[in-house]
Amino acid sequence: MKFKVRGIDTFASTGGRPFDKNKPLMIFVHGSGLSHMVWVLQTRYFAFRGYSILAIDLPGHGLSSGESLKTIEEMGDWVGDVIDAVGCKEASLVGHSQGCLVTMECAKQHPEKIKTLTLMGGAGAIPLNPELLELAETSNTKAVDLMMDWAHGPAGHFGGHPVPGLYHLNVGSMLVQEKKEIKDTLGVDFRACDNYKNGFEAAKKLDLPTLCILGDADKMCPLKEGKKLADHIKGSEVHVINNCGHMMLLEEADQTLEILKSFIGKHYPLKK
User: Fold this and answer.
1) DSSP code of 139?
2) Which domains does the chain have, with CATH numbers?
3) Does the predicted model carry a pTM greater than 0.85?
4) Closest by alpha carbon to 163, among 95, 253, 94, 245?
5) CB within 10 Å: which end of the chain, N or C, has fewer?
6) Whether 89 contacts 83, CB under 8 Å
7) pLDDT tier, 213 (very low <50, low <70, confident <90, very high otherwise)
8) What was the pLDDT predicted at 2?
């Protein structure tokens, strides 16, 4: 589905069902350099069970036009504008990695619009290794290889994948856009994460049902950092997936979906 946000063409996957602004809205926000493709399993499930789904491509990513936004604050405000752009008043947000920072910032800036928050592989701060940051900002493909190698836990380094059409170790080359310079997507995103210092401040201001899904083998946002973030969020619910790295939405897609289903069913149920 294509629509305009701030006059710029924006793409979002609707999970295989037509978008209906009268149904409860769920917005899925991808991580650094990635796209809507990471949410294939989760979005399809909710779309076929009565929710309106938008797995967005951030500006300059995937099939969305425009330039990548330079700060997490800008991205959070932009997600709030997405809700208005599709004619809705509120949404439940689901973010992964950088998307956690973005969705927290959105909920902080637009509390009246956000009903629930799900943070997968999140942390209050995501500082980048200087060498990795330099590789991304110079469009060196090693940045993609290193990111995806570190992103996957033990299971992610073996063959097979629960999401049809995606494979653990080459998913980076599929998801980081070939037609766009790495420095203009991954490089900009990494710099935004590295510069963002307001994560814990945003977390302390949240006052809505919040779910944190963490992997015990996450090397990008370590488990202790995820728990530290959760401790700053009032009443947050924490689920830890064993033997799982940073890409739990792909590595352990089924288990991640089960946890999300339970949370959404409790805090953002369909109206009867």
Assistant:
1) T
2) 2-267 (3.40.50.1820)
3) yes
4) 253
5) C
6) yes
7) very high
8) 97
